Structures are given as C-alpha cells and as structure tokens.
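Hello forum,

I keep getting stuck at the same step: I have a sequence, I want structure tokens, and every attempt I make locally crashes halfway through. Rather than fight my setup again tonight, could one of you with a working pipeline run this one for me? It's a single chain of 353 residues.
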Amino acid sequence: MRMPAKIFTMIRTWTAVLISLVTGVAGPSRGQSRQSDLLILNAHVVTMNRQQPSAEAIAVQGGRIVWVGSNAEAQKLSAGASRIVDVHGATVLPGMIDAHTHLLSLGQSLLKLNLKGVATEREAIARVKQKAAAAAANEWILGWGWDEGEWASHYPNNAALSAASSQNPVYLAGLHGFAAWANKRAMDIAGITKETKDPENGKILRDEKTGEPTGILLNRAQELVAKHIPPMTVAQAKKALALGAEECVKNGLTSIHEAQVTQLMLDAYRELIREKQMPLRLYAMLDGADNSLVEEWLKRSPEMTRNISLRFARSSCSPTARWARAVRRCLSRTTMRRKRRAWSPRRKRQYMI
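Reply #2:
Ran it on my machine without issues. Output:
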C-alpha cells in the first residue's frame, strides 16, 4: 500500500508510543512475535526517547504500539502482520498535545455556515439560501466568516438576506468578531426597530433615508440579536464536540487541555466518552466564572479517569476570598493531598484541583 510522503501521525497512540519506547526494546521479543494488526515500514520515526531517538518501523497491535525498530528487524514480524504500510520515508510522530483549546467553538464553526473567503453579498446570499432549503421552519441559521473589515466601505442591507430566508432567523457573525449581519426575521425576534437606540459601545447601522436598521450590527450591538439565539442542547453540543475532535485527530492532536468547560460541555463529554465516541484525551479546565459549577464540584473528589481529568480555570489572578477558602478546605482532605502539589494563590493563574 502506497502512502503520500507527508507526515503520518499515529492516531490515539501517543501514550503507547511513549510507554513502548521507554522500554528501549531493540528488536522483536517473544511477546511481540505474535501477529500484528499493522506494520509500518520505511518511516522516519521520531520517538522522543533519548535512548532510541529514531527508528524505521513500527508494529501496532490492538490499537497500541508494541514495538519500534529497524526495517531489517521488522522483517521478522512481516509474515504475521495483518496489514503492512510502506510510508516511503514519511515522518511518523507521537500524537501532539494542545495546551489550550476551545473544542466546542471549533465544532460550532464546522456546523455553522462558513462564509470565509466569500467576496460578495450575492455569493453569501446563495449559501444562505441553500442552507435555508434544508432547515426546519423557525430554525436559526447561523454563519460566520464574512470579512467585516473588507466589506466596511460597502456593508450590505438585509433585504436580499431576508428574501432568501423569510421563515428562518439568520445571524451571520463577521470574521473578526466586530460585526454581524442579521435578516429581518432575526431583527424582529430581537425587537430591533427604527426607534431602538444604539447600545453603549455598539452601533445599529441604519438606512440614511428611512432610518430603518439595515441588519448590520457593530460591536456590542451584536448582543441585541445574539442573546436570542437558543442555547445549545446536549445533543447539539455532542455533535459539535465530536466534529471538533475529529478535526483535531486529523491534524495529529491526540490530547487537549480544554478551557472554560461548562456544565453543558461536561455532560456532552461524559456521554461521548461513555459511547466511545471521543478519540481525544481531555484535560478539562472548569469555568471558574460559573459559581454553581464550582460549588458543586468542590463538594466532590477530583474526576480523573483514563479519558478525562478536571481542574479549575480562573479568569483573575486574585481569587475571591470565599473561593480561596473553599479550595484550601478541599486541598486539606487526605485524598486530595495525595493527588496534587501544594497550592499557591500567587504562583499561578490557573489552579490545579
């Protein structure tokens, strides 16, 4: 089987890579002579192991890397291998870890209508019309990516946008987050009329002749419509997280440190893990701004499994006295002391629990 000469990343095996390589196995052992599911040959394997910094071949069994070594040594395993892949000198790396992610946002961006690179109003309207044809009545059509900076000299109104989807509220966020474009249905739901005043630090663009809102909302004015978008359900969050995880895996990420994890995200993550639909290992930083989530979680022991571990993430370097006391009480428990390092409120912006 021939594979393009590009980076070939082993999916969901980065820990197995490290564990296997630490053993420093020089060749196939008696335990490794059994049939392999996959044998990778002619690779430039970066092992991250000082004792064996590189290799040419990898044997995989049951989703785990059981051996690394030379092509010559791999011949002893080739007879029993179910599948042999010649990567023709491609680089093989352990899976990578991203230390700060927003997986839900990534997944949502994949679910939303992508207008990145769209140059004209007509092209954007065509995409909205296509999306609306498959949407249920009253379902919000959400999109992102039109360049509000590039369009600033000729912002469109929402006449064509409203005609393309009269039964569905449409809300299209700009690429840089400074503007949004909403159709009449969305503006009506938000109660935005000719008489609506501009919010502080925001502006509702209006027709110069009639004074009617055009559908373009700048800066804080975006919230006038955005706050009416229905919150995500667990099912929708699961779909978004699964799509985001798939995108991460395709790009070589096998573990992530997820920031600002909400209760909704926790519920979705747990269901995906139970259903074996989460290919990533998760280090979840709980949203410290959610007091109910913080208080509920402090009453329990830390959640640490093979797939997920949890910690707090605070948005401020100076935690509230109440929060600090709660953390100290939590850390004083014997079970907690055995699992963590000493806590210091000034040492770090994010506190491990």
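Residues 1-33, 314-319, 334-353 have pLDDT under 50 and may be disordered. If your local run keeps crashing, start a new thread with the error log.
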